[in-house]
Amino acid sequence: MQRLKLLSYNVQAGIYSRQYSDYFVHSWKHILPHPERLVNLSRVAQLLHQFDLVGLQEVDAGSLRSAYVDQIQYLATHGGFPHWYRQVNRNLGPFAQHSNGILSRLRSERITEHKLPGLPGRGVVVAELPLSDGATLAVAILHLALGWRARHRQLDYLVTLAQQHPYLVLMGDFNCGCNSKGLRTMVRAAGMQGLDCELKTFPSWSPRHNLDHILVSHPLRIVAARVLDYAVSDHLPISMTIELPSGVKFVTTDAASA
Questions:
Q1: CB 183 within 8 A of CB 197
Q2: Does the pTM of the predicted model rise above 0.90?
Q3: How many CB atoms are located within 10 Å of the residue 66 CB?
Q4: What gap in Å lies between CA 95 and CA 3, rounded to an integer?
Q5: N or C: which end of the chain has fewer CB within 10 A?
Q6: What residue spans define the domains of the chain?
């Protein structure tokens, strides 16, 4: 296997927003459980079957608002992923477990968690997939801060992370678009590619901003990238198919696609 089908999705803890007023009218859903949440997650799980590795943001690891359902595990089970991992970035005990998640059909050699600079609650989780040349493909799932000062420090941190991994994927909710000077500086300094102003993901009901990105290091080849019209959250999911350099393959054969 030499190709990998990636998906990044901010699922807003299973809350489906249809217009800006929903943030106010349905704000209680960020605190209390509601029956629509599992219906929405089941719809997300149906989409995930066609991908090899999925990065999730704004997912709850099991609390009152999710009816104590670990949403990462739920999506892994219903999406048919044998390997999954949760990174709890903001632990509010029984009230909320704000997390990033990884779902994978390939077994990781190692998974590491990184706490991002700024106020507590933002992180990066990195899964390293073993390759036939003895290296690893590092796939990092992230959710950056809303404030530009903290986000600037976090983008600098990603440059440092890129220096540690020759084969790297950065994907998630960057909370800034391709016109962001800080984001463009990071992409250049980290030697990444894939920044595309046409891939607009937010808001899902009328996408005008490209806040979600999948960026890859230059040894990797981008085969295809697109935003999927699959509005179950306030973000749309973004997908990318990548290809390893010639002669390099994934060591495991657990993947769904070849």
A1: no
A2: yes
A3: 22
A4: 40
A5: C
A6: 3-243
Q: At what angle do helices 71-79 and 36-48 cross, to 10 degrees?
A: 50
Peptide bond between residue 203 and the one before it cis (omega within 30 degrees of 0):
yes
Number of neighbouring beta carbons within 10 Å of residue 73: 16
CB-based burial label for 153 (10 Å; 0-12, 13-18, 19+): middle
- What pLDDT band is residue 15 in, cutting at 50, 70 and 90? confident
* Burial class (CB within 10 angstroms; exposed 0-12, middle 13-18, buried 19+) of 89: buried
Q: At what angle do helices 148-162 and 181-190 cross, to 10 degrees?
A: 10
Say which CATH architecture domain 3-243 belongs to: 4-Layer Sandwich (3.60)
Contacts of 236 (CB under 8 A, 6+ apart): 200, 201, 202, 204, 207, 212, 227, 228, 229, 230
Mean predicted confidence (pLDDT) in 183-211:
97
Residues found in the chain: 258
- Cα three-residue angle 31-22-237, rounded to 5 degrees: 90
**CA 4/CA 77 separation, integer angstroms:** 20
